[in-house]
Amino acid sequence: MSSPDLFYLAPLQGFTDFVYRRCYQQLFGDIDEYYIPYIAAGSGSKIRNSQFREILPENNGQLLVVPQILCANGEETKQLAGELRNFGYRKVNLNLGCPYPMATNRGRGTGLLENPEKLKEVLDILFGEFDFEVSVKFRAGLICEHTIFDRLELLGSYPFRKMIFHPRTANQLYKGTANRELFARLASMSQHPLVYNGDIQSVSDLDEIKRQVPNQNEWMIGRGILADPFLVSRLKGHLPNQATQRDMKWQFHEMMLESYRQIFPDQGQVFEKMKAFWSYFQRVLPTRTKLLNPSKKPEI
Ligand SMILES: Cc1cc2nc3c(=O)[nH]c(=O)nc-3n(C[C@H](O)[C@H](O)[C@H](O)COP(=O)(O)O)c2cc1C
């Protein structure tokens, strides 16, 4: 018998923030782990406030969260992992997937995946100087899909708790579709089971990957959930009826708005946060709902 499916919320900086995670959990509650968007050393080695509040334990309550670090070398790793340890975290995720030149040019994200010496330095510190359960999230490479095959031996020599693979190269950003065939190839070679991540939006997407990787049962989903908060219920076959869905969508929206209002005294900030939420959430609303005309007060 195959193991039950496990679903993880992908980290999306600016979207899956602690407000989103808490409201989602309260209403939908069907996620096995919530991955927190990355923290990184900013100017003067300081973590930005917007990233810092995401890891504050009081903002995450009882949620099963996994914080993520974006780093380029041992020194940054020590700093960021040290912050997380001081907050009492037991798990950490290493970002080897960030595709943006601002990160990769500094040797972070996919840039670190491309540099085996620095990667080893980071992993030796993460596994040797801390006692985290470590997971890793990676792309295929900066430009070429070969990088991940070249790096599999190094990654496989560390006892990762999870290896999450988004089968695109960094220079693709989010263009085209995730390469499921590439995922299947890597899964067949990896000693660790892989978590699949990329472009899951429907039951048929999941079925298609299961057809290519029959025992696949761990899934990380980001934009699909943002655009349809019932996606995981749909995938689990527990979709509530239409009237309940309508009520829950309304409640979700109200909960998000109220939470942002409590956190941000400035209405402009609340509007910006809600605009980010709406940019995906509007896809489950009736098509006549026009939400993103900034000159008009949004209605729902
Ligand atoms: C706006 C945005 C922000 C993201 N922020 C992060 C991040 O902080 N850490 C990370 O590992 N991935 C980040 N990602 C990548 C997602 O976690 C995920 O890998 C990607 O969206 C593909 O999964 P999906 O198709 O299910 O959304 C981000 C993606 C987007 C679009």
TrEMBL record:
<comment type="similarity">
    <text>Belongs to the dus family.</text>
</comment>
<comment type="function">
    <text>Catalyzes the synthesis of 5,6-dihydrouridine (D), a modified base found in the D-loop of most tRNAs, via the reduction of the C5-C6 double bond in target uridines.</text>
</comment>
<feature type="binding site">
    <location>
        <position position="68"/>
    </location>
    <ligand>
        <name>FMN</name>
    </ligand>
</feature>
<dbReference type="InterPro" id="IPR001269">
    <property type="entry name" value="DUS_fam"/>
</dbReference>
<keyword id="KW-0819">tRNA processing</keyword>
<feature type="binding site">
    <location>
        <position position="137"/>
    </location>
    <ligand>
        <name>FMN</name>
    </ligand>
</feature>
<feature type="binding site">
    <location>
        <begin position="222"/>
        <end position="223"/>
    </location>
    <ligand>
        <name>FMN</name>
    </ligand>
</feature>
<keyword id="KW-0288">FMN</keyword>
<dbReference type="GO" id="GO:0050660">
    <property type="term" value="F:flavin adenine dinucleotide binding"/>
</dbReference>
<dbReference type="Pfam" id="PF01207">
    <property type="entry name" value="Dus"/>
</dbReference>
<dbReference type="InterPro" id="IPR013785">
    <property type="entry name" value="Aldolase_TIM"/>
</dbReference>
<keyword id="KW-0547">Nucleotide-binding</keyword>
<keyword id="KW-0560">Oxidoreductase</keyword>
<feature type="binding site">
    <location>
        <position position="166"/>
    </location>
    <ligand>
        <name>FMN</name>
    </ligand>
</feature>
<dbReference type="InterPro" id="IPR035587">
    <property type="entry name" value="DUS-like_FMN-bd"/>
</dbReference>
<dbReference type="GO" id="GO:0003723">
    <property type="term" value="F:RNA binding"/>
</dbReference>
<feature type="domain" description="DUS-like FMN-binding">
    <location>
        <begin position="9"/>
        <end position="281"/>
    </location>
</feature>
<protein>
    <recommendedName>
        <fullName>tRNA-dihydrouridine synthase</fullName>
        <ecNumber>1.3.1.-</ecNumber>
    </recommendedName>
</protein>
<keyword id="KW-0285">Flavoprotein</keyword>
<dbReference type="GO" id="GO:0017150">
    <property type="term" value="F:tRNA dihydrouridine synthase activity"/>
</dbReference>
<feature type="active site" description="Proton donor">
    <location>
        <position position="98"/>
    </location>
</feature>
